[in-house]
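Quick start: load a record and inspect it. Here is Peptidyl-prolyl cis-trans isomerase:
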Amino acid sequence: MNRLTILLPAGLMALAGCNGGGSEPDLESDEARHSYAVGWQVGQNIQRSGMELDGNAVAAAIRDALEGQDPALDQEAMQAAMQAAQQKRMDEQRQEAESNREAGGEYLEEFKAGDGVQVSEDGVAWKVLEAGDGDSPAAGDTVRVHYHGETVDGEVFDSSRERGEPVTFPTDSVIKGWQQVLPKMKEGGKWQVVIPPEMAYGEQGAGPAIGPGETLIFEIELLEADAE
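Running the structure step on this input writes:
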C-alpha cells in the first residue's frame, strides 16, 4: 500500500458512501471514473480494516481541505480526537485479547488432556493423526504442506485444503509454533496442532481473521520435507 492510499482512504470512502443520500455521481468523464475507481478500492481497504468513521464528518473535512477552507477543528482538537480514538481501539483490543486468551486456554487444556497428545515447553500441543515414514525437514529447509487453520470457535481463517493447492515455504519463515512442530514431522505425516497466542500472532493478531490473543488450531500434512 502506498503513501497516498494510507493518507486518503477515510475521506474517499466517506465521499463515496455519502452519495447514497443524494444524486448518483456522473461517471461519464475519464477523471470521474478514475476517481470512483480509486475511491472504491480504498473504501474496500478501510472496510477490511474495521475502522469506524462518521462519513458525513469525513466528507466535510475532505471538501474543506480541497477547497482551501479553514478546518472546523484546530490542530490541538484534531490531535486529541486522534489520540482518543487510538486509546479506545487499544482498550477494545486489550479486552478482546483477554477474552480470546481465556477461550483459547480452556480449549488448549482440554486438548492436552486427550489421548496421545504431546506438549512442548512453550505450550504448543499436537496429536499425530498419521505418523508418516519419510524424511524430516531440517531448520531452514523448504517444505511443501497442506494445512487447515481454525480458531477455537471453529472459524476457518486459512486453508490450503479448501483452496486445493498445497503451499511451499522455508520452515524459518512461519510462526514459531510451526517452526517447532515441522522438524518433528516426517513426510507423509499429518498432525493436529494447537498453538497458543505467544507462539502464533500474539497480542496483535493478523488482520480481521485472527484476533489478538488468539489460540490457533491447525491440521498440518507434510507432503515434502525438502522441496528445493
